[in-house]
Transposase
Amino acid sequence: MVVPWVVSEELWERIEPLLPVRPAARTGPKPLPDRAVLQGILFVLYTGIGGEDLPQELGFGSGMTCWRRLRDWQEAGVFAKLHEVLLAELNAAAAIDWSRACVGASHVRAKKGGPDTGPSPVDRGKTGSKHHLICDGGGIPLAVTLTGGNRNDITQLIPLLEAIPPVRGRRGRPRRKPDALVADRGDDHDRDRDLLQRRGIRPLISRRGTRDNNQTVRWGVEQTLALLHQFRRLATHWERRTDIHHGFLALATSLIYWRRLTKTTCQELLMRGAGFVASRPDSGPVLGPSLYLPAKHLHAREIAAACGSASSTSCSRTNTPAPDQSAITASMSYRSRTQLLRQLLLPALV
């Protein structure tokens, strides 16, 4: 059984170089390995239990040890650097949709109070907080902020945009802004529209008193907020210290990045087996690890060329007739294209 809080080798290879070097202690017990402590933090993040309730049988150390490491790593900027590394890989894979970005917010209960909390207008004045999120057109989170439950969404539109880290992975300067910004009527303000236009961003913000026409394209931010709150530690704001909650938020966001990368690994293997490099008309040539591109973004002739090269290689090995490339048409669904790619390209990998 695969448990979600176990750190894989591939993910650990990206995290380990970012961790600060701990000075060797002359006396006292030997500190626990960082990987084991990170798994203890993930156990708390997934299950939502208190740190003092962390089972010692798991070998992840005590809850206080996990709390101290999370504090130190957040202070050292480990998770911010991890965001830049994973976002660069996603950008190199042409998986980030820069054509638009969506913003949204969600309220969570704050049981213990503390900074960035306030009386919630949607929860009978009980103490709560808000998670403000900006994501790309496909639901990849770009930045998350935390405010009190009584803060208006308008106050966080520009800070969210400024919180986007520089995203590398492509030729040229790192990118930090989308082409357009989609928001609901809660973010309606002419001042923000002017600021967005000055930055070269097209504002797509619904007007108050009118019908919200952006609901069909705002599914990404709502889905990402739901993914964040599937981590039980984030569904309720338990921490009195803001930096600890920000650490959990950053770690959960990194896990969402990692899920996106691992889901596209199959497509990378298939395309590399065919010796095929893909490109998108709207983003130019893909650089670096460029073969994470989903099949739905490939043109019919590109798929036919990839399948033709792979099928000729696999059929020469197995002495079987090559498949008919005319079966690959632009009208095929995403599932049909993916299944056909697997049938034609997997033998080439053997």
